[in-house]
């Protein structure tokens, strides 16, 4: 049975590899906040194929281009940068008004509130198929989304019903959205892919490590620094992939445009003598070579210190480290969505859990 499941997973990776080689995406992220301390009132970002193109926030008030090929593009086509400046500056005012209107409409006074938008398009280069989307979240929940087939807004939240009625009657805006997402967005996406093809279609293999918090914790296999995002990481024993006592983490972005992922294994019931039978395997889309790291107690990295050897000074250093991780988590969390498409709540004072590894 395990052989069949492994074959199915490998087949899935092969199919996805073939599919995604011709598919590209252009995504825009906007976050507007009110009452959130130590965070910009407005943040905007753009990505092509999960690679950050640029960033803007209400503190810097200027686009920051993140890719050299994007900087070359705006040197060749200066109006691109002008368009982003106008859009970011204009959206900053528009989203502030949206937040004010929502607070009044929902009888909310004070407190912290967050309005998010994810919009953009996906393009299949082979078939020419275009899928556009424009959806909003409010305080971490799905709020309203545009159906480009019917040119009507859908409101999964009852709080958005009044907004739906108003936006459904804004015919000019609906027609603009249709033209933009079906024509302009894919045209720009093609242009970006042509400029950045060498970066967007590169292959980078990760570094791998085994991590463990304490001698009795789950063993975590981490792969970091890979690109593209399409990859598999799994544990196997004696050549057979494991499905029990295994937990897969999400694929997360790194600051340099690469990705990381992890998978944990519970070996508490396996004698140390059997650990050599286990290995962690990484497979990147488009690369035949597999990276393999064997489960070896001496190779496991840990910051665990026996209580008798624990220095008092480490408490302060550890606390500072946790604070830095939390700050990074808040910043990164602003741009993420759950796998099922639902908006993830932006942290506004909610306690954050640190990852297992």
UniProtKB/TrEMBL annotation:
GO biological process: immune response
The keyword Chloroplast is annotated on this UniProt entry: no
Lyase is among the record's keywords: no
Signal sequence extent: 1-21
Chain ranges passing through the membrane: 310-335
Gene3D superfamilies for this protein: Immunoglobulins, MHC class I-like antigen recognition-like
PANTHER family recorded: MHC CLASS I ANTIGEN TRANSCRIPT VARIANT 1-RELATED, MHC CLASS I-RELATED
Name assigned to this protein: Major histocompatibility complex class I-related gene protein-like
């Amino acid at each position: 049975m395990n052989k069949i499941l492994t074959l199915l997973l490998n087949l899935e990776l092969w199919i996805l590899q073939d599919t995604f080689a011709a598919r590209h995406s252009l995504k825009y992220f906007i976050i507007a906040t009110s009452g959130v301390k130590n965070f910009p009132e407005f943040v905007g970002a753009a990505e092509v194929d999960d690679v950050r193109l640029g960033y803007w926030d209400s503190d810097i008030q200027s686009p920051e281009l993140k890719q050299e090929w994007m900087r070359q593009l705006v040197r060749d086509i200066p109006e691109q940068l002008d368009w982003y400046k106008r859009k970011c500056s204009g959206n900053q005012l528009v989203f502030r008004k949206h937040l004010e209107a929502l607070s009044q409409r929902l009888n909310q006074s004070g407190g912290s509130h967050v309005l998010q938008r994810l919009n953009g398009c996906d393009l299949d280069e082979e078939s020419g198929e275009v899928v556009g989307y424009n959806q909003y979240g409010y305080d971490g929940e799905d709020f309203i989304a545009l159906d480009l087939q019917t040119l009507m807004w859908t409101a999964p939240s009852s709080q958005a019903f009044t907004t739906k009625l108003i936006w459904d009657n804004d015919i000019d805006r609906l027609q603009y959205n249709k033209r933009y997402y079906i024509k302009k967005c894919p045209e720009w996406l093609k242009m970006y892919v042509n400029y950045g093809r060498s970066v967007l279609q590169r292959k980078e293999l990760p570094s791998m490590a085994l991590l463990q918090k304490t001698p009795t914790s789950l063993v975590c296999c981490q792969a970091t620094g890979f690109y593209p995002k399409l990859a598999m990481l799994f544990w196997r024993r004696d050549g057979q992939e494991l499905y029990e006592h295994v937990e897969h983490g999400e694929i997360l972005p790194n600051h340099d445009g690469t990705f990381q992922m992890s998978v944990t294994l519970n070996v508490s019931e396996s004698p140390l003598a059997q650990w050599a039978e286990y290995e962690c395997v990484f497979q990147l889309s488009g690369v035949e070579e597999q990276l393999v790291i064997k489960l070896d107690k001496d190779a496991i990295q840990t910051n665990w210190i026996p209580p008798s050897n624990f220095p008092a000074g480490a408490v302060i250093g550890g606390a500072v480290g946790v604070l830095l991780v939390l700050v990074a988590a808040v910043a990164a969390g602003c741009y993420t969505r759950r796998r099922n498409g639902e908006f993830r709540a932006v942290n506004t004072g909610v306690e954050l859990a640190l990852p297992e590894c």
